[in-house]
Write a structure and sequence with these properties.
The complex is a heterodimer of chains A (about 350) and B (about 220). With about 350 residues, chain A is of the alpha/beta class. Chain A has eleven helices and ten strands. A five-stranded mixed beta sheet of chain A has the order 3-2-1-4-5, with helices on both faces. With about 220 residues, chain B is α/β, with parallel strands linked by helices. Chain B is built from five helices and ten strands; from the N terminus they run E-E-E-H-E-H-E-H-E-E-E-E-H-E-H. Chain B has helices spanning about 40-55, 75-90, 100-105, 160-165, 180-190, and strands at about 5-10, 15-25, 25-35, 60-70, 95-100, 110-120, 120-130, 135-140, 155, 170. In chain B, the strands form two sheets. Chain B has a five-stranded mixed beta sheet, with helices on both faces. The radius of gyration of chain B is 20 Å and the shape is globular. Classes of the chains: A alpha/beta (about 350), B alpha/beta (about 220). Chain B: InterPro entries: ATPase_NBD (IPR043129), Gcp-like_dom (IPR000905), T6A_TsaB (IPR022496).
């Protein structure tokens, strides 16, 4: 199945045989980010401009507002990244950009700026899958061992990915409705917590002494898929029923009940996948990887079964361009470049992006 | 015109097209206009490369970039603005943002009203040399103030038909295509202290709080 082993890949050197500097641009949602990474591994700079404060008053990301913010800041962030890294545009080996998935209007801003930069500097262009970026964020801080299983959890994604060899992805499970982060945001709104809700629920859950009992959606016995919309509805129903009885629930207990349910399912399915696929590592990726409860539960279970858990630091869990550069390096080594008519793909498939 | 005069590239994707023009001084070396409802983000860079190749010049021969900043299709405006800013950075040349209202009336005489199409029976308008002060704005065509219709007023631009009909004014053709006018205006601009091109939207983003509000807690009493 794996006809292309790591060893068979010859490293494509930079034009002068020196280090390979890739400049990457990420604008798939509400962070504008530009990074410069050397040899797919060393971060020279990773500038992230978050729009969270702008979107907080709407309780979520407003696509048109996000696109407006991206276009305002895109080039000065590129300039700042070059400046901070002390790299001249002419020293770059390639320009990488998130091709998808994401908000199309947001993707387009980064896509066109990256194309213009690559075109005018006569550099190769590399389109990158956002989730491949989240997974390969781990390459910036850890040594990856294949095969591994990655649990990708964020505001837009909940996926279990089997990575048999470098850059070869197979989605073995995914959410059938809400993403984990989306469920966190909806429950947070019900508890009148600010957006984004994840960190607030995580904190409340840790403070709680008791938990509201909530269901777990295991789906079919052999399924690695997830479902969180039923859990969200159960939270809302529990809140409503308690309020009708005049005995409102403690937000801490709701947060803990919700988080326990989410973590149970994520951890069990991830560990089952690790066993079934003979994974040498479990990789945690995406914004929800910052969740302390999830990390602790995964660490405990991974220690039990003797499989290392790899998770990037918080700054590399949330959307950033360094992870895009890390994933782009896989394509750079293989000379897999994109044409200048590359299309931003809001629904880009991870498997299709495999090297 | 000496051949070492820097070239000026102008382009625009604010409507249902991809358009570009290349100038050396006053001389038009090449123009492009391709109609397309979407796909400007895919077509723009290859189209510019083809145009430069046809003239036998290189990206490095460009001395300045002019870009249409709208008003127009929001996504389309952001495509050309992002491209212009990326090119300016890569080539280390100035990029200048040009209003498409300015481009519509460029080289026209007398009082005139730039009229650009907008969705839902509205138009983006701006008055030039008009008695009434008419700043750039988005306006319902049916309620345009008729006192704007001074003697000799000409309406110019894609939305000039319905606007002129409403105001009882004359219609005049634009002197140049938008991309050519953008390049010409950019060529004459002072680059010192000129800001980076930024979209001219003339309309706030449609941004409403999330539809999924907090759940309604039924009153227990």
């Amino acid at each position: 199945m794996n006809e292309q082993s790591n060893e068979a890949v010859s490293v494509r050197p930079n034009r002068d045989g020196g280090p390979v500097y890739i400049l990457a641009v990420e604008t798939s949602c509400d962070e504008t980010s530009v990074a410069i990474v050397r040899d797919g591994k060393d971060i020279l700079t990773n500038v992230v401009s978050s729009q969270i404060e702008t979107h907080q008053r709407f309780g979520g990301v407003v696509p048109e507002v996000a696109s407006r913010k991206h276009v305002e800041s895109i080039t000065w962030i590129i300039e700042e990244a070059l400046d901070k890294a002390n790299v001249k545009p002419t020293e770059l080996a390639a320009v990488a950009v998130t091709q998808g998935p994401g908000l199309v209007g947001s993707l387009l801003v980064g896509m066109v700026a990256a194309k213009a930069l690559a075109c005018s500097l006569e550099l190769p262009l590399i389109g990158v899958h956002h989730i491949a970026g989240h997974i390969y964020a781990n390459q910036l801080v850890n040594e990856l061992e294949y095969p591994f299983v990655a649990l990708v959890v964020s505001g837009g994604h909940t996926e279990l990915v089997f990575v048999e060899a470098e850059g070869r992805f197979r989605i073995i499970g995914q959410t059938r409705d809400d993403a984990v982060g989306e469920a966190y945001d909806k429950v947070a709104r019900a508890l009148k917590l600010p957006y984004p809700g994840g960190p607030h629920i995580d904190r409340l859950a840790h403070e709680a002494r008791e938990a509201v009992t909530l269901p777990r959606a295991w789906l079919e016995p052999d399924s690695y898929d997830f479902s969180f919309s039923g859990l969200k509805s159960a939270v809302l129903a529990a809140l409503n029923q308690a309020a009708m009885k005049g005995q409102p629930l403690a937000p801490e207990a709701v947060a803990k009940g919700f988080q326990d349910s989410v973590i149970d399912v994520l951890v069990e399915k991830a560990l089952r996948a690790v066993r079934a696929y003979g994974a040498k590592q479990l990789i945690l990726a995406g914004g929800v990887a910052a969740n302390k409860g999830l990390r602790a539960a995964l660490e405990a279970r991974c220690a039990e079964v003797g499989v290392p858990l790899l998770a990037p630091p918080l700054s590399l869990c949330t959307d950033n361009a360094a992870m895009i550069a890390a994933a782009a390096f896989l394509k750079y080594r293989r000379g897999q470049f994109a044409p200048f008519d590359m299309k931003a793909e809001p629904l880009l498939k991870l498997e299709a992006w495999s090297v | 015109m000496p051949s070492d005069t820097p070239l000026v590239l102008g382009f625009d994707t604010s409507g249902s097209y991809c358009a570009a023009a290349l100038l050396r001084g006053d001389e038009s070396l090449a123009t492009r206009h391709e109609d397309m409802g979407r796909g400007q983000a895919e077509r723009l860079m290859p189209m510019l490369e083809e145009m430069l190749a046809e003239v036998g010049v290189d990206w490095r021969d460009l001395g300045r970039i002019g870009v249409g900043v709208g008003p127009g299709n929001f996504t389309g405006v952001r495509i050309s603005v992002s491209a212009a800013r990326g090119l300016a950075l890569g080539l280390d040349v100035p990029a200048l943002g040009v209003s498409l209202l300015d481009a519509a009336v460029w080289a026209s005489d007398g009082p005139c009203l730039a009229c650009l199409s907008a969705p839902r029976d509205r138009a983006y308008v701006q008055g030039y040399h008009t008695a009434a002060s008419i700043p750039a704005q988005l306006h319902d065509i049916a309620t345009l103030p008729t006192h704007w219709a001074e003697p000799g007023l000409t309406c110019i631009g894609p939305a000039s038909d319905p606007v002129a009909e409403h105001l009882g004014a004359d219609i005049a053709p634009a002197a140049f295509s938008p991309a050519s006018a953008i390049a010409r205006i950019a060529a004459q601009r002072d680059v010192d202290g000129a800001p980076s091109p930024a979209p001219l939207y003339l309309r706030e983003a449609d941004a409403a709080p999330s539809r999924e509000g907090a759940p309604v807690i039924l009153d227990a009493r």
